[in-house]
Specification:
alpha+beta; 28% helix; 2 helices
Length: 126
Amino acid sequence: MGSRSTGTVGDRAEQKALGFLVRQGLKPVTQNFRCRSGEIDLIMLHGDCLTFVEVRYRKSTRFSPPASTVDPRKQRKIVRTAALFLSSMQRYARHTMRFDIVAISGDKDRTVEWIQDAFRPGDSSL
């Protein structure tokens, strides 16, 4: 069994998620937006809706499904990072916003689950 770096596996999962979402009609805005409060994997437009996407990959769902790892702490980080993105990219400030999760599982035959409106800023205060 060869070793794979987490970055490489994560990059492949993000590329798979990006391709999947583009096929669903979303348009990429940016990938891997980073700032002092965190990172957002994908930022896309779904019509007029600015969509912040967290991509999660798990080879096995035996212990937990990938989407369940986006806990309230992670949600708060994503929300804060989205706010900083909007403050630096004023042209998107009037768009409706949504927070999605793309959960990918499996090794060779990966399954993709797209959870639209997976959480809202008020949810992350729990």
